[in-house]
Amino acid sequence: MIRFSPLHPRDTPELLELWNRCAPYDPLTEQLMREKVWGDYDFDEELSLLALNGDAPVAIAHAVVRQLSAERRGYMKLLGVAPEFRRQGVGQEIVLKLHGALVRRGAETIRVGESAPNYLVPGVDTRYDCAAKFFESLGYTKIGEATNLTAPLAGRDFTTDISDSALGANGLAIRRADANDRESLEKLLKTYWPTWNAEVATAMSCDPRAVHIALKGNQVVGFSAYDGNNRGTGWFGPMGTHPEFRGLGIGKILLRCCLHDLQSQGHARAIIPWVSPTGLYANQVGATVDRTFNRYEFCLGERTSTEMSQKATTE
């Protein structure tokens, strides 16, 4: 008989073994497991479940609720069922339990992955064919696609010299951010990219700070970051330039500064996630498409859990 219990840090070795069997394209380390689950500032024990057959873990599910400007939205961050227990109703049962808990917390919709600022993937990898069929059987709707790129780092030169660019002529400087830049950086983010603030704050907490900035006097007019999410994996982003300062090559130099740092950490490649369009990264650093994801959403108010269960059972 299947029983359910909350995810607990003491169970991390067993959770890792289960997850890495379930999700071969998204392997986790202990550090990443802790970051994705208990390190999420919206962690909720009732939204993090382990299914057990006796004492053996057979399924894992982890969700969060984010308060957005217009709604409260749920996100299915992790979902995996041991291969030998698939098509036995375990995945359906654990998802329905999470749906009920999400409704009680006021969530109107739920999406798979894409739980920025702390997320593992921006959707369902197209290679997980059974996962796509599973979500669609429960009434999830495909709402788009997302793409991750990778840029090769090994043996490449990412040093920069702004004297050869338009930056110096326009009174701009590029350097690593320090504590004194925090206020100006946060002002830029609040104005143009408020949803990126948490990721950039995480990057600013690294030692050395994993944020490079472009300055006009004391004003931050551009930034790039890395290790703001999935730390230690070669994860680049986010990056942005003030609209009035675009077209001067700021993004190109900031990008190369971050890739130089990731190269120095020993990474052979950088992951550039959730990208559209891809041209900048392809042209400047030879980035190529590495993964494609389908994005799914379910409107929790559209159907009751009973209706979902009946649909999944008959399909």
From TrEMBL:
Keyword Transferase: yes
Annotated keywords: Acyltransferase, Transferase
CDD domains: NAT_SF
MF annotations from Gene Ontology: acyltransferase activity, transferring groups other than amino-acyl groups
Pfam families hit by this protein: Acetyltransf_1
InterPro entries linked to this entry: Acyl_CoA_acyltransferase, Bact_Acetyltransf, GNAT_dom
Ranges where the N-acetyltransferase domain occurs: 2-159, 172-313
Protein name: Putative acetyltransferase
Species annotation: Adhaeretor mobilis
